[in-house]
Design goal:
The complex is a heterodimer of chains A (114) and B (117). Chain A is an all-beta fold. Chain A is built from no helices and ten strands. Chain B has 117 residues and is mostly beta strands.
Chain lengths: 114, 117
């Protein structure tokens, strides 16, 4: 069964609004979670590392103020895309390892900004 | 810096043919992990295999097999007797050995596999 649950699976929002995406680890605690982004027909790129109890670590070129990450508990990390624009339309997917060296992914969220 | 190259952008085969997806990686680390994932049209990433750098033994799982060659920095994936359901994008990925739980992955560009009936 699923190890990591991500919600929503897809979302359409108006330009200028904010969207929150949730990533939950199922039946295990995850002090670290990872957020990736995948543009159409492209590969997955790491955006940021979500750390429970501390600030997220962002990859170079990712705007911290635009992509807010909150690791609220040991089983939940949220990614909020603030003031979304059409260029933010993408597939966002999280990873929450259950053991060292694991990398299981959520179902992904397809964001469309109109 | 770590890098993964999947030179084959797209492969088309007819059902029951064997197909090999290539993956070449670069890393300065002596210990690392290699992964293969399948991404069907729904978008989810389906975990297929993880291999650590100390284990060069080839692995077979049903119709899937993997050939890890450290000398050529390659981790190729073969599907035997391909089926239409194998049609998907396949990603090879590399990660360092984590000091703590969780490791971030560097992905290749992906190979689109189309299996025709």
């Amino acid at each position: 069964g699923a190890v990591v649950s991500q919600h929503p699976s897809w979302v359409i929002c108006k330009s200028g609004t904010s969207v929150k995406i949730e990533c939950r680890s199922l039946d295990f605690q995850a002090t670290t979670m990872f957020w990736y982004r995948q543009f159409p027909k492209q590969s997955l790129m790491l955006m940021a590392t979500s750390n429970e109890g501390s600030k997220a670590t962002y990859e170079q070129g990712v705007e911290k103020d635009k992509f807010l990450i909150n690791h609220a508990s040991l089983t939940l990390s949220t990614l909020t895309v603030t003031s979304a624009h059409p260029e933010d339309s993408s597939f966002y997917i999280c990873s929450a390892p259950r053991q060292p060296a694991e990398a299981f992914f959520g179902q992904g969220t397809r964001l469309t900004v109109v | 810096a770590q890098k993964v190259t999947q030179a084959q952008t797209e492969i088309s085969v007819v059902e029951k043919e064997d197909v090999t997806l290539d993956c070449v990686y670069e890393t300065r680390d002596t210990t690392y992990y290699l992964f293969w994932y399948k991404q069907p049209p729904s978008g989810e990433l389906v975990f297929l295999i993880r291999r650590n750098s100390f284990d060069e033994q080839n692995e077979i799982s049903g119709r899937y097999s993997w050939n890890f060659q450290k000398s050529t920095s390659s981790f190729n994936f073969t599907i035997t007797a391909s089926q239409v359901v194998d049609s998907a994008v396949y990603f090879c990925a590399l990660s360092e050995v984590p000091l703590i739980v969780g490791n971030k992955l560097v992905f290749g560009a992906g190979t689109i596999l189309r299996v025709k009936s």
